[in-house]
Specification:
Thrombin, subunit H; 10-stranded mixed sheet; alpha+beta
Length: 351
Amino acid sequence: MRISDFDYELPEKLIAQYPAERRDESRMLLLDRSRKEVRETKFANFPRYLCEGDIVVVNDTKVIPARLLGRKESGAAVEVFLVRRLGEGRWRALCRPSRRLKAGNRVLFGEVGHAITIGEQLGGGEWVVSMPEGIPEAGFIERFGHTPLPPYIRRGDEEIDRERYQTVYARVEGSVAAPTAGLHFTGEVLDGLRRKGITVMPVTLHVGPGTFRPLDKEVVEENVLSAEHVAVRKDYLEEIMSARKSGRNVIAVGTTVTRALEAAASGALEESGTIVSEGEEYLTGWTDLFIYSGFEFRVVGSMLTNMHLPRSSLLVLVSAFAGRERILSAYRWAVERRFRFYSYGDVMFIR
């Protein structure tokens, strides 16, 4: 397959710059794989399309304010974009402008001049950085960090983004991008699912900045994704697998949940192990699972997902799930009807 086969035309004005006034007022495109049917409803109606006994799996990762805007001692502006925590006080980070940095540089924040120290260069604009001493790490990030909006949202982050670029069930800090399919949920929608006898289960996949990167090799299969951390409660995974075998539907809320479940079910977790947290046992590890045409889905029966960037691994994934021509046809249908695209945009339910 060639990545150019996963392209489509999108007017820039259809790229959502702000969220809908209410989360559950987003439009929802219904794509029925068996009937080849496409139609529209509101996301608030989502519970109507599920059945008692279904399992809806959400990603409970929480976005951190990972974008830190500081200055060198010379006064030159520097952005430190936190990517992955390596240990106490040490992070892997994208630093810009990378070519003007060197090990030992200090990046200052605030009037007091709290300093992040630049360490080892890792390549690709990434460095190991050390957080300031004398201030709690979490407090520093919360105070000086900005919501890491994706590059196609062409504005600075605002107060509204602290709440809306976060799911209502976000719990475990660690993502630098939101699992956007979950942004549409409200407490009312979740209550509606539970009243209908539908189980809502969380897994955790911490989303990295690679989610926004276009695939750089023309042959799809030659591309490699950045690894992301996964944690799944073992009893939840067992129940999900049992439900699938018994014919109950497992609905993945987003590509991140899809990758987490399929990686866990197929043993595709690297550095895997188990941890106990709050009395529950979790399967943990890292996954760089790249899902493209020909992949055998072992767990996910239906998928809720936003509309994705052309030539992206996310578009390739949903095309593997529903068929490339069917997805691209649905996208063209959505463009004609002026759906809103990407992170703050509308949503698609593939069933």
